Amino acid sequence: MKVVAVGNQKGGVGKTTTALNLSAALALRGQRVLLIDLDPQANTTSGLGMEAEGEDTVYPSLIGDVDVRSRIRETGRENLWMIPSHMDLAGVEIELARSDDHLTRLRDLLQGLKPNDLFEYCILDTPPSLGVLMTSALAAADEILVPLQCEWFGLEGLAKIVRVIDEIRGSGASPGLRIEGIVMTMFDNRTNLARQVIEEVRTYFPGELYQTVIPRTVRLSEAPSHAKTIFEHDLNGLGANSYLALADEFLARHGAVVAG
């Protein structure tokens, strides 16, 4: 099982949209995916039409002896499972911060799932911050996928993410952590700025930048309000096609056979 954190400490960059729809696209491609919502705002959870109480989240497993496998829930979508979130998860930041092993607790929990071959991928939707939950997710991940809005401010956020990754590696919590890829989101083909930002990222991260670009569309924005993935909301639209292309590129990077 490959653990992939979808993260950017800057909000409003399409992070949750990407975590949710990439997970759904991988599931449509026949991959068994576990999506873990680590954001107390629980937008990924509600975006899939799920509801959770505090004890349904990863919270009890992080602070006690609750088997993380008991937190996994079916989403009603083939090949896609979830550990949901709830606003109570915000409390774990305080409790974990008091412990010496706060960086490695989530990593140790997820290690227990790897030998079972239950899932090909575990996708972590992280909070838009650099708090304990975010750093714990990075320490637990094999790699990070960074959604980046096509604006200049996004480049500043990318620089911060790179520094945090270096710190996590240096701490020894996840020495092999790497940026798996950078996904440009909210692309508007009508503006020169969007294309300039993409070229700037390509200059500094040519190997990490995905060829697939996620457009800014109304359908992508409104799908979560209907508790649907983009494939359930607008299967043949530009957003759905883009996330399927992203999933195919993701699988090709990981040496997986893409099933139509």
Write a concise keyword list for the protein shown above.
single chain, 260 residues, alpha/beta, Rossmann fold, seven-stranded mixed β-sheet, 15% strand
Q: What general outline do the C-alpha atoms trace?
A: globular
State the helical fraction: 40-55%
CATH topology: Rossmann fold
Instruction: Determine the mean pLDDT.
Output: 91
Give the second-level CATH assignment, the architecture: 3-Layer(aba) Sandwich
SSE string: EHEHHEEHHEHEHEHHHH
List how many beta strands DSSP finds: 7
Reported for the largest beta sheet, the result is: 7 strands, mixed
Domain tally: 1
The fraction of residues in strands falls at 15-25%
Q: What would you report as the Rg, rounded to the nearest angstrom?
A: 17 Å
What are the low-pLDDT stretches, counting only 5+ consecutive residues below 50? none
Q: Strand order, main sheet: write it out.
A: 3-4-2-5-1-6-7
CATH top-level class: Alpha Beta
Count of individual helical segments: 11
